[in-house]
Design goal:
This protein is α/β, with parallel strands linked by helices. The chain has one domain: Rossmann fold. Strands 1-2-4-3-5-6-7-8 form an 8-stranded mixed β-sheet, sandwiched between helices. Strand 5, helix 4 and strand 6 form a beta-alpha-beta unit. The longest helix is centred in the C-terminal third of the chain and has 22 residues. The N terminus is likely disordered.
């Protein structure tokens, strides 16, 4: 059974070699169907996963008003706090990776290099990175990704409106960033019905890619 502690939710094997901290997207909580499923799939592949919620989302659970999320840069402190709280609980040799869905992954990416430089994390995992707002490809959110030093994996749908395969492959990104493409996937990695691919297959492929990425990082140590 999951262990909930305030806005933390941990699942997966406690003896895992890798522990992944995940933040939610802008409009859905840490217990959204997407987050529940990806945590389950990662647990099946031997990763321990902790999910947490930013303050604005946690307030909704307590009956607060449904306000839009703050700008990603204003959530960086909350992400650092979540990392610090989790690091007090995990013990080496378990390695810590950070990431999240959409906006949560973007916030994680903004703090990744500083945490990596201090040897507090081993890598970054972004699920559906919002490279730009839908319909506004000129408003890129990639400046910090050009020279990123932290090893990173971005799992992206091929037709994600926040950054399609054609768009992303034309961008300048750090060589430390690997990308796993979900076949015909949208922002939640779901394909179109006539594509011949399935959401279940894409989510399983994403989990496989993340597990393999985490395993590669353990071998670097």
């Amino acid at each position: 059974m999951p262990n909930a502690n305030s806005t933390l939710l941990t699942t997966g094997p406690r003896d895992a070699k890798s522990h992944l901290l995940l933040a939610h997207g802008a409009g859905a909580p840490m217990t959204s169907p997407f987050m529940d499923k990806i945590a389950e799939l990662l647990g099946d592949r031997g990763l321990e996963v902790t999910r947490f919620e930013f303050g604005y989302m946690a307030a909704r659970r307590e009956g607060g008003k449904r306000r839009p999320p703050p700008k990603a840069e204003l959530l960086m402190g909350e992400y650092r706090d979540a990392v610090a709280a989790l690091r007090r609980k995990i013990k080496k040799p378990q390695q810590l990776l950070i990431g999240g869905k959409s906006m949560g992954g973007r916030v994680a990416s903004l703090v990744a290099d500083e945490l990596f430089a201090r040897d507090e994390i081993s890598g970054l995992v972004c699920l559906g990175y919002p490279f730009h707002p839908p319909g506004k490809p000129e408003k890129l959110r990639t400046a910090h990704l050009i020279d990123m030093e932290c090893p990173a994996l971005i799992v992206q749908g091929e037709r994600d409106p926040f950054g399609s395969r054609a768009e992303v492959e034309a961008m300048q990104l750090s060589p430390t960033i690997a990308i796993h493409w979900a076949d015909d996937g949208d922002h939640d990695l779901g394909p179109r019905g006539a594509s011949g691919f399935t959401r279940a297959g894409n989510l399983a492929g994403a989990a496989d890619a993340i597990a393999a990425f985490a395993e590669r990082l353990t071998r670097r140590k």
